[in-house]
Design goal:
Blueprint lengths: L15 H25 L5 H13 L3 H9 L2 H9 L1 H24 L7 H20 L8 H12 L3 H15 L6 H21 L9
Length: 207
Amino acid sequence: MTPAAPLTPAPATHSWFDDTHALIAGSLFVALGMTMFGHAGLLTGGVAGVAFLASYASGLPFGLFFFLFSLPFFVLSWYRLGPAFTFKSFGAVALVSACTTLAPKVVRFELLNPWVASVLGGFLIGFGLLALLRHQASVGGVNILAQWLQQAKGFSAGKVQMCVDLVVVLAAFWVLPPMQVAQSVVGAVAIGAILALNHRPGRYLGV
């Protein structure tokens, strides 16, 4: 007689209030972390890293480039992850873009050590992304690709995100001093570690 297979609990369904709260809180966490990175002159990976480079080079707000560079990835999101994921992710990207643009008017850092910014800012971004991903949303770009690879192929979204982020940050050796690149690498690892440890396939059953 074969033993019965362990029962897997049915996924818990998030209410609209749950999703709205996670969308706002997660986006604000990401925006604050990005603001810390920008103040310290750091980079992160993916679309955000490219947006930081464009912002540093042009003097225009990071949020503007982040929003524009994220738009093409919503095509993949629409066809591979569905309209609900796409709309929520678009809202998150718009909120992060707006908050990072407005942040200098309401948040000022009189003293912010770049190493502290890389770790604390990375953790804030990581936890913000975690909140969004657990409510079927993201902040666009590579985050959308990582989420699709986890759902379709079983890859860890956190590990995918970390690998891409490290490649983008290491490429910054061409434009940033080595110390800033090293600090940016620490930030990328901090972000990826939060996702890799807490956003694994099958670990969280809420939908």
